[in-house]
Amino acid sequence: MRARVSWTLVLAAFLAFPPFQRERVEEMGFGQIFRIERMRVDPALTQALRSRWDAEASAFAFPWGHMIPSLEDVSRITGLRVYGRAVSGYTYPCYHALAERLLDLPIERRSSLVPRAGKNAGESEDEYLARLARVSQRELASEPGPQADLDLCRFLVLFLGRLLFATRGDAVHCRFLPLLEDLGEVGGYAWGAAFLAHQFDGLSASERQTSTSGFYPFLQVWAYLHLPALRRGDLTWRGLVPIARRWDSHRDTRHLVNQLECLHEAIDSYPYLDVVWQPYLGEGDEGQPWLVQARPYFGRSVWLHALNLVLPLNLFLTQRSLGLRQSVVDFPVRDRFRRSGRSFRGLHDTTDWRERAREHIENWERKGKGVRSDATTDDAYLQAYALKYGRKVYKSARHQVDVTGEIASLRALLQSVVQDREAAQRQTTELRSELERVRGTEAGGASSSRSAGGSPSLMEDRLAGAVLRAEEAQRHLEERSERDQLRVRAETAESQVAEMTQELATLRVQRPSGDQEEVIRLRAELLAQQTLARNLQHIVTDISRSRSRSRSGVSVSRAPAPPSGSI
Predict the structure, then answer these.
(1) DSSP letter at 305?
(2) Looking at the record's lineage, which domain of life comes first (predicted)?
């Protein structure tokens, strides 16, 4: 079932509820979702982002470093609660008996939670929604009581299984049903944190999938806020909360393949200056009471729980999103709680995840661990990042230069060249001394040389040849040193570009209206540094070509002449 159709069905069921039932849904923390307008699905953006997801790190791997959707993103974009008890409990190999008891539905091949009503020809989306709501209203209890509780339980299964934690296909899974047995406890769970774990799990699927799991507007709006230069979203309604209410996806009529190719190219060449690490700096808390209790969870690395999904939120990989410099960190490795399969039906045993994941639940109850950094620059992290990912961070056909990887390798190369040059200088000095000693040897020295089977002139020629070879090696090392020094200057220029980029990005977010001249000045300096970096790279290339030509000339001049008597 398409995600937008699922949204329409769930929204129709919510609108069909009498006011007292809607209030109960609000008290559970789900009301803000139903204030969000139905957004167009952007499968190209979803697929482009999924291709950048590193399941091992639970993070996006972009050319400029890791980025991770956070609990603050969930809270501000969707309005879901990210505080409370971990969404954990029992999972069962079969839910038939539980569904019959709690939902009063006969479990046959397929049972419907809502009346089936297809869209009529020529019917608009709003007309279809209104008709579905009218049809559903006839089936719902209008007064509190056991039947109203049953209606609410059925609705929550539909909402959780087909919208918030949707999976591929039409079936509505019942894995959260055990948590709905006591409706008074439903609002005490951190459903927003469970939703984020489900998003991480969905991103780990094959990058060829164009459908998305769960509430798809979240990931789209996250990209609109953090990567605005992609221009995939339209800011239609300003000032509304949660933030997803402000946006709709940009209509793109091109073929999906063409959209995806353009998105890959745009992300590969995305200007670092336009990456928004802290999109909520100018946002207040007005009209968002759920943020008060959620704030202690922001900016912390913590384990997320959605029953059998136990996944890490590794915010220590994205310290820049907290206004810090990114320090060098150990990149995560795969955890034993990751499921090997994609299907929830693969759970063949009854499992108590509160017991199996006890240590991780305690981590959630402690609100994880705060993120700190003493780094004054991102350079060391970027070098380690480049060594780990290399060109894997580029997805377009025309890969960009891996600048950080080049910097890391050039630093090691420069150290090696310095050591080789010092060794060559010592060898040249020793050979010069030996040559001078041989040239100064008189008859006695010649006699001893002859007794050893050689001649002074032959020894002198050999030493002279060795000196020439050593001098040539030294010249070669000096050329390499000069080239590498130029590359280091290019590296310095790149570093200055990055620092100016960061400074300008900060000004973009924080600057008052009077700072436009400062931004223009920084842009000019940034352009000058980029020009310098390109010029240095051209110089390095010219030196390399010149050295290749000089080597060819030396090889020809040193080719041995044939003996005069040869034929």
Answers:
(1) E
(2) Eukaryota
